[in-house]
Amino acid sequence: MDVTIFGSGYVGLVTGACLAEVGNTVLCIDIDPAKIDLLNSGGVPIYEPGLDELIKSNREAGRLRFSTDAEAGVRHGLFQFIAVGTPPDEDGSADLQYVLAVARTIGEHMDGYRILVDKSTVPVGTADKVAAAVRETQAARGATVEFDVVSNPEFLKEGAAIEDFMRPDRIIVGTDNPRTAELLRALYAPFNRSHDRLMVMDIRSAELTKYAANAMLATKISFMNELSNIAEAVGADIDKVRVGIGSDPRIGYQFIYPGCGYGGSCFPKDVRALEQTARSLGYDPQLLHAVEAVNFRQKELLFKKINDYFAGDLKGRTIALWGLSFKPNTDDMREASSRVLMESLWAAGASVRAFDPVAADETRRIYGERADLTLAADAMSALDGADALAILTEWAQFRSPNFATVHGKLKTPVIFDGRNILDGRLANAAGLTYVSIGRLPLRPG
Ligand code: UDX
């Protein structure tokens, strides 16, 4: 089938590459010529495991093309995926200008029936706005070409996006038109093999499902982070509590890891946007507000622990950071906890020596060259001349360091583990104090 994808960002590229891989002919459109040039010369603008190879092989097979020519895009696909960004407005609500611009482009150039598929995470009611934008643009040129708008939210996890697309937990199709539902079912058939995971529902429920899923997951994390602070206060160990409650299948072991807060492109933005939607309709969403507030406080926690440890004396000190991305296997630093910590350390007059396996370039892009930031070539050299070590991202390679080497390099033998990934007793055995989340500090001896 012929598919057009508007927006060659994270969601657009993964969707395009995976749909091409199963035999569709996919044309990806983006307004950024630099991005399209890069893709056409074999580059990939984002880091996602497996995506480079998938794009390369499908490009070479002629099933995946990239262009800035929006008109050609509208002519190409029966399916017109909208996968452009919905950045937050000042008040936290999703900014729809890019989504609606694509809708108008489609309305302007469509010469036959098209299915507009909303992949971007958009507030409830957006499909109606997309349809209105198409109708208005058609009316302006005196056309009345038939179309449908479908809400088909994505549930990709960064770092596992290809796997998530190829073997989805569910495929949500929001439409009021049974014929359109069948066409989407055919498009998704290769990803819906072993048992039927495709759910057809009304458009508004589909739009809300995406927000509900992310808000629920964010709630689990904030709940555990709140509990971890209570655990510390009462002298309990949150890790024991986590295992204790996770054994109840109604609670489950997944997504109940406390830490230094959630980041990324989805949770913070979507929780805020859902809160904003509720408020705009006159409902006060107290739980969503608390989920966000707890996360905000949690991101400041590591700085507080470091500052307390050094009795407020951080000026001139150097703190080593392991991990900069908001989670492992990505270079994405949107809303990353590392940024809150680095900015607090700088404000207190400290310097940062950081190492991340893939996010160094992204860090340079965000912060530029500055005297109080050094990006080290590997984890151990980040410790050279550092007073203490803080761990921000649970990259696998940080999980069992040589504690004797760490001890030898740090001026003050202390580790602040924001993801609870180390074995504190091993750190103690090497003479290091181990400060983590939701547990009292473990001191050697
Ligand atoms: C998330 C959803 O998982 C995905 O379904 C949705 O489509 C987009 O948003 P993503 O943002 O890629 O995906 O990351 P995810 O792996 O869910 O992690 C989000 C954040 O939560 C990370 O900062 C992670 O460190 C944190 N987290 C996760 C915790 O602090 N504790 C946990 O138990 C799980």
Feature tags:
single chain; 445 residues; alpha/beta; Rossmann fold; six-stranded parallel beta sheet; 16 helices; elongated; binds uridine-5'-diphosphate-xylopyranose; NAD binding; UDP-glucose 6-dehydrogenase; EC 1.1.1.22
Which helices and strands appear, and what pairs or packs with what?
Elements: E1 2-6, H1 10-21, E2 25-29, H2 33-40, H3 51-60, E3 64-67, H4 70-76, E4 79-82, H5 97-109, E5 114-118, H6 126-140, E6 147-151, H7 161-166, E7 171-174, H8 178-188, E8 198-201, H9 203-234, H10 238-246, H11 267-280, H12 286-309, E9 318-322, H13 337-347, E10 351-355, H14 360-367, E11 373-375, E12 388-391, H15 403-409, E13 414-417, H16 424-429, E14 433-435
Parallel strand pairs: 1-2, 1-4, 2-3, 4-5, 5-6, 7-8, 9-10, 9-12, 10-11, 12-13, 13-14
Enzyme class: oxidoreductase
Protein name: UDP-glucose 6-dehydrogenase
Pathway: Nucleotide-sugar biosynthesis; UDP-alpha-D-glucuronate biosynthesis; UDP-alpha-D-glucuronate from UDP-alpha-D-glucose: step 1/1
Brief account:
Keywords: NAD, Oxidoreductase. The protein has 445 residues and is α/β, with parallel strands linked by helices. It has 16 helices and 14 strands.
Outline the structure in words.
Its EC number is 1.1.1.22. It catalyses: UDP-alpha-D-glucose + 2 NAD(+) + H2O = UDP-alpha-D-glucuronate + 2 NADH + 3 H(+). It is an enzyme of class 1 (oxidoreductase). Pfam families: UDPG_MGDP_dh (PF00984), UDPG_MGDP_dh_C (PF03720), UDPG_MGDP_dh_N (PF03721). There is one protein chain. This protein has 445 residues and is an alpha/beta fold. It folds into two domains: 200 residues, Rossmann fold, CATH 3.40.50; 244 residues, NAD(P)-binding Rossmann-like Domain (Rossmann fold, 3-Layer(aba) Sandwich). It contains 16 helices and 14 strands. Strands 3-2-1-4-5-6 form a six-stranded parallel sheet, with helices on both faces. α9 packs parallel to α12 and α11 crosses α12. The site of uridine-5'-diphosphate-xylopyranose (UDX) has 19 residues, from α9.
